[in-house]
Give the backbone structure.
Amino acid sequence: MGQRHQVFAIAKLIPKGDTKAYYRCIAAWHHQWCYGTLPLKAARRFLTLLQQKDNAEIVLDEICRVQNKFGRWRKKPELPNLPCSYISFLMGSAWNADMDDPADPYFHRGTFLGSILDADMGSTRGDNNDGITVIDVSNPLKPAYCFVSVNGLESAEEVPDMEPLSAEQYVRAYYPKEDGPKDASVQNVIDALADESLITLQMLAEAWPGEYIVDFESKDVDESSHDTSVASDPFPSLVDLTLGTALEQGISAEDTSDLENLVWQPAKAVLIKATLQKQNPFPDAGVSLLTQVVLQNPKSVDLSGFSLTTDQLVSVLSAAKKDINTLKLSRNSNVTIETVKAVLTDCPALTRLVLLDTSVKAVDLQTLFKSDPQMFSHLHDLIHPYLLTATKRATYANAFSFISVPGLGGGIPIASLPFLNPAKVVQGLTDALIVYAEMDRPSFAGPDQCSLFPQVAFGSALRTETQRWSERHVSSFPQVSFDAFQGEGWCFTLQNDPMHWLRGRGLNFYGFLKFDVPAICAEVERQKKAKDGASDTNAAGDEGKEIGPLGIIYDLDEFLAAMEAEGRPLPTEAAVNKLRDIMEAMKSKQDIRLMKQSDIIPFIQTIYEGAQFSD
């Protein structure tokens, strides 16, 4: 039952042992109810996410990591089932949740692991009755799309099978053109994809040979309208030979003072930076010159591709370290966990650290998260493959998690963060809870329908006040952790029955918690003895006893006060006020109260019972 649809991301990959790139599926997703305008809206959301530069940077890194390693479709070495977690997460986020307008949101049930499909599957092999969407992510800043009818569509009009369909061709099969406001709404959805390139039949045939047939000899298929190339570094063709010679001489003489006087000229600064980037190993004599380049824009520093050692890097950043908000250190094998420690210690204003294609190992980050969590307290986003990879259960220590009771969509709505930054927590909670505040009446169509949504909400980088949800930067793929119940870190708990007459009023609550595990275990044992009718008079006499403290339960202001006491930087007053207003609206509209000590054990039991049936 359902309007079943699949989504596939394809990209140009060079097979192992080859030199030519071919299209290849690298991510696939199943959606149980997606037809008509819904695939178009989801495709638009996915394309918009791809086109954000920070997201595109991660997508390209993920594609790079699967180059030259696998065969073509159905050839060996076989592609893993989930080769590109980040791209898959963007896809699932776009197809299962939309929060651009909190008063009119969209959520679809389904867990990540329950919706992801084998990337090596055929495009026609899914349980399908409403076609597929295919997105070319080779150049995420210039993606392409198409829809395909693979087994016919359950639509009013017929369309050709196994051929690329435009947005208009696909949706008009369901809603033939007519006069009236409904048609205008359909046309708006079509127009939202009007400027995007369309995938060709040849591209589909290259990704799935045998499923799509192209007569290459008699049919000239033009792909020139869709540029799949990623912009290459333009600097080598611009570098002035005289400047390059002067730089080499200055480095050799260990005197770059004359060149430092040119850095204030934007064009010269670009050329100097490009020339320095080529130096491998990086010479100590170039540190002073690169420092002057960094000072041209000290808030956002991009040192990707520079072969700096940790000591050189610390020296380059020394003059700007109090101002740096964003630091990119990608594509440098000299960058290790010691480098991470150095920059986090030396740069107190740093909020975003990008570490793609470095020597920083996942196990080293795991250790540092646990041994020195305060080191990350000022950081909003740490971009590293380890934090962009899907897992069944968290492999890092829980610093803060959002945990909600299972909704009708199945799975546990849960997201865990490896380090606790109050601004990120407040934004994540705002995104996760705002729909409850916007609801005018109880509804099944809430975020509890989508167990993936907390991961989507807490995976967003900190946004500006004017930045739309659809244009967010996805900086992490939060993992699923139940370790808050073991006393590890903080959590925000939510029990909300949107149709609260099903279980009675007064059962909806929230709270910021830190659990006291020994107290909980003792209370569980006491209740068990009382229930079993133990002969111990003390246990029997305790049956009606009021439950003692089983952990800390805070409201928003108490939690933020605790964060401030720990020395963590607080969110802006505007961000806190927005979340406070949301929580007040939830109290009045959804009958949600602050959690009590007596709620703790039943809540934990509810979560664990739900987890038995969750992916």
